[in-house]
Write a structure and sequence with these properties.
heterodimer; A: mainly alpha; MetI-like fold; 2 domains; globular; B: mainly alpha
């Protein structure tokens, strides 16, 4: 009898099902809407299927501009973030210097101020600096959201490179630069990759700040969503959502192994 | 095992570096520090003086644009904007809702994440990895999309209502309720907590779990006296990050919550934009910041404690 009915197993399967419904339900439901003509309560099937909403998005110049802006701004933000943060991450992971701990904690505190309040405060400053509604203004806002990823995660990765490997390479006659390139950098690469992916997504998905600072002159894909959901039918929002999710899915798919392998978790423990 | 290895690595690194202070290290760390100082620290400081009624200098433009600005009356400023906020009946409701949603969502997130992480550690197998993979999915979805997806899923025309109507149950419309904010907050916060907590739980040595079991400890006892205490630091980090994130969230309560009361993130934005009362908006931001700082202290304390225990400080 126990072979056929095991309450623990039933409970486990039930919880897997509920979690799947909870997590996947909403995104599948929205995704399907990109291909339907109409879907009204209480029908379990849509009235019909169509691809018209896709051409609607691709023919709308405002939506196209938003897509282009996002694809230009995010790579710029990530490269700037790498240039500014990676040397600091190396220093925080490898060197001991005055104020190192204060530095790490300052970066964290910056993260604990409520985002929307910070953006309101920054907007006050932006009015004075004439950055309101400018490209640079949006870049800076998005850059701020990437700093914590681009310093903390690579710092932990640099710190965990075993010193004896570097020393062995030095003993074998490699110069400092070669050691850094072939050992330190290579071993820290998974952490840096995770940081790049997380930073890109933080920038690409950033909505509140870019909206407050950029609208109504500069719209990115997420900020366009705010007006989209109010002014367009749900099917258009569904198409736009699928487009907006493509980079995230591709990039996270690329870095999934390292993210789940603990690189992200390692990075968030101050050492 | 992994944690043991990394610890010896750390000690080795300290021995190598000695405690010589590196000037180069300090210089390299300056750029992000200055960026944060310039675009986070200084705006917050200026914003704070503005909330106290300093309307000149960098606050001049916003003081001209905004309405109901209280200029300072004493040398240190005025608390008029703060008193405005505390006497606003909306604010009290908003604050209660914000704190309640934050507390309930954080507890739910930690419990779900802990359950999945423990199952993965103690039982393992295919189901465990399916659960872990499922719970990472929200990381792949931008928050604007997830908020809108949840809005439609639980809305009047949504799947939940349609599905239950077909089996004769009238499922409530959850969109525009505080329940929906909790659903959305849990949904978006789950991946980070799972990653933190499962990495902490995985690091508990097998030997400790086995020896506790050999002494006759039940699974529940093993969890409560061995695994959870040893994974305490990552659990606290996950909890504090989740709470701080939810407390200041904007998109989720905007799309999913009721109009009144709403969470403070939305109200801050309303006061800044729609109502054009920037001073009161910043006052609210500082109140949320104060609450978030309390949580941040917990996070830093927990990190320092774990660093001391493992001999890193």
């Amino acid at each position: 009898m126990r072979r056929y009915f095991n309450p623990a197993k039933v409970a486990l399967n039930l919880s897997v099902f509920l979690l799947a419904l909870f997590i996947l339900g909403p995104i599948l439901w929205l995704g399907v809407h990109a291909f339907v003509t109409d879907w009204k309560y209480p029908h379990l099937y849509p009235s019909g299927l169509t691809l018209n909403w896709w051409s609607k998005v691709f023919l709308d110049s405002a939506l196209k501009t938003a897509i282009r802006n996002s694809l230009i701004i995010s790579p710029i933000v990530v490269v700037l973030s790498m240039v500014i943060c990676l040397p600091a991450a190396y220093a925080a992971g490898r060197k001991n210097y005055w104020g190192r701990k204060t530095f790490m904690i300052t970066l964290f505190s910056a993260n604990s101020f409520p985002k929307i309040g910070l953006f309101a405060a920054i907007a006050t400053l932006y009015y004075t600096l004439n950055l309101m509604g400018t490209f640079l203004g949006v870049v800076i806002i998005q850059l701020l959201g990437t700093i914590i990823y681009m310093t903390w995660i690579p710092a932990a990765a640099f710190a965990s490179v075993p010193r004896y490997l570097e020393e062995a390479a030095r003993d074998a006659g490699a110069n400092k630069f070669t050691v850094f390139r072939t050992i330190t950098l290579r071993m820290a690469m998974p952490g840096i990759l995770v940081a790049i992916v997380m930073s890109f997504l933080a920038s690409f998905d950033e909505a509140q700040g870019s909206y407050l600072v950029g609208a109504p002159t500069i719209y990115t894909m997420p900020t366009e969503m705010y007006s989209l959901v109010q002014n367009y039918p749900i099917q258009v929002a569904a198409v736009f959502s699928i487009l907006l999710a493509i980079p995230s899915v591709l990039l996270l798919g690329l870095a999934r192994k390292h993210i789940m392998g603990g690189q992200l978790a390692e990075g968030f423990q101050i050492k | 095992m992994r944690s043991l290895l990394s610890k010896t690595g750390k000690e080795g690194s300290l021995a190598n570096n000695g405690s010589a202070l590196s000037l180069l290290g300090f210089a390299l760390s300056l750029p992000p520090f200055l960026l944060v100082l310039g675009f986070v620290g200084i705006p917050i400081l200026i914003g704070f003086t503005f909330s106290l009624g300093f309307t000149r200098g960098p606050n001049r433009v916003i003081s001209i644009i905004g309405q109901q600005i209280h200029p300072k009356t004493h040398w240190w400023g005025t608390l008029a904007a703060y008193s405005d906020v505390f006497h606003d009946s909306r604010f009290v409701g908003d604050l209660v809702l914000t704190l309640a949603v934050t507390a309930i969502s954080t507890v739910l997130v930690i419990l779900i994440a802990l359950a999945i992480a423990l199952h993965q550690r103690l039982v393992g197998g295919r189901t465990a990895s399916v659960l872990a993979t499922l719970s990472i999915v929200p990381l792949f979805v931008p928050v604007v999309i997830s908020a809108w997806a949840i809005h439609t899923f639980y809305g009047g025309d949504g799947f939940m209502r349609s599905f239950f109507a077909n089996i004769g149950i009238n499922f409530p419309t959850l969109t525009s309720t505080s329940t929906a904010i909790v659903i959305g907050s849990v949904w978006t916060s789950l991946p980070f907590s799972i990653l933190m907590i499962s990495s902490g739980v995985q690091a508990v040595p097998d030997a400790l779990i086995e020896s506790a079991k050999d002494c006759g400890a039940s699974t529940l006892k093993v969890i409560s006296t061995v695994v959870v205490p040893l994974a305490q630091t990552p659990i606290i980090i996950a909890g504090s990050f989740t709470a701080i994130g939810i407390m200041g969230s904007f998109t989720i309560p905007l799309f999913l919550g009721p109009n009144q009361p709403t969470m403070l993130g939305v109200e801050i934005s309303n006061f800044f934009g729609a109502y054009n009362r920037p001073q009161q908006s910043l006052v609210m931001a500082f109140i949320v910041f104060l609450a978030a700082s309390g949580i941040a202290v917990l996070y830093i304390w927990s990190n320092v404690k774990s660093a001391k225990e493992s001999g890193r400080i």
